[in-house]
Amino acid sequence: MADFVKGLFGGAKPSVGGAVPSADSDFADFADAPSPTPASLSSTLSAPPAYQTFGAKIDISDRPFTKWYNVHERVTWSDFKTEGFVIPFLLLTIFIHFWGVRSNRRRANAWIRSHVNALENEFTHVGFGKKINPATVSPDVAMSAGDNINPEILREKSKDVFLSYATGRQNVACVDVKLSLLKRYNPFSLISELGLGFFFESMAGTGEKAEITITPFDGKEAQYFRVREGEEKRFKDTSYDGFIFAIVNKDAMRKVREERYDVSLTTTKDHAKLPPWVSVMSESAEVTEMLLTQELANAIKECGDDLESLIVTDLPVDAPRTLDELVPKKRVVLTLKLNSGTNTTSLFSYFLRMPDQLVTSAHFRPEVMRRIRQTREEEAKKVRKIVEAEGAEDRKLLSDKAKKEQRDRKLKGMSADEQKRFLEREREKDMRKRGGRQTMRA
């Protein structure tokens, strides 16, 4: 302590040469440690090299066989339970998809092969491409065979919808063929559709069917091809009176009435010429007697339960919402259950010749057509009322919008006090209106 005080106040300093400072007690252990020396490089070079187990120059026999390589010791079959369920399920789904696609193609080809002769006998051009000469090509190319579809005759729109086309006949503009099949390629959709159809009648599927639509000329040849001046007289009159006539399978009658607006305007009756499982839906008894020939009745009996409907119409399928949709558009539609058998060929052939019968005989007495036109005029009045009601509603919305914009402009040009008085007058006016309504109700 005395030395410390002397140092502060400039006391005598110890001599430098005679005294040796003592080491710090905290680093006493390192005071006598020797200085580090660098390691000898010769000892490092003389050490043996490390043993390598991997690399391009190492043979596979020199690599250690450890447990890391033993896959059978690290995993068991229980580790692949999920894959054991997923992989077979995926393989089964893929197999069903390809099987369903090929099955639908075979069914469509079988139907077109059994009915293509009737089309070729009645029309000069069948299919979408150039006309094929069967004498110069093989039969498999001339028409669809197996699951190989000839796009010239049958076109695959989707995996469950196939189309065909024919034209080149007197009184007929064209024929459209649509084949609708089950979605065999998609088991999930097929099971859900069949399941819902089993429990809910409104959600039942349409099944497999062939829908053939004939579009007659009806005196409008100029809309389908070019007619030179002075050549109109070459074409005979192909027009006929518009009406609705149908022969419907009783099992499908409810669905046809619900889905088709035109058929819903007819009356249903049984006929002595027809078997008991079909009914006639017509606008007039005279129309029925003209169209229902004995040949047609025999063809329907031969067709059996494969017939779903035969419809002659000039009105749209869906309920019209505008007057333009009520413009007559004449068509003849045949719907068959998809069957490759030959029991439907006679009805199909008769169906293709029906436009000739319509052009020749479908000209009725004025009294008959007066009743038919009266039905169409009533439907036109209903549509006109709907259009006028929609127009009145639109006009009311526009008027309310204009009044609101005028009110907003008035409020913007007013001061705060004027706006307050304006809103109070509006509130009083609304209260008086409500009070008057309550008085009227009482």
UniProtKB/TrEMBL annotation:
A Gene Ontology term for the protein's cellular component: membrane
Alphabetical UniProt keywords: Membrane, Transmembrane, Transmembrane helix
Domain of life where this protein originates: Eukaryota
Transmembrane parts of this sequence: 84-101
Pfam families: CCDC47 (PF07946)
A single MF term (Gene Ontology): calcium ion binding
Native source organism of the sequence: Aureobasidium pullulans (Black yeast)
Name of protein: DUF1682-domain-containing protein
Gene Ontology BP annotations: endoplasmic reticulum calcium ion homeostasis
Region (Disordered): 394-442
Biased composition (Basic and acidic residues): 394-408, 415-433
Membrane topology of the entry: Single-pass membrane protein
Compartment(s) where it occurs, according to its Swiss-Prot or TrEMBL record: Membrane
InterPro entries the record matches: CCDC47
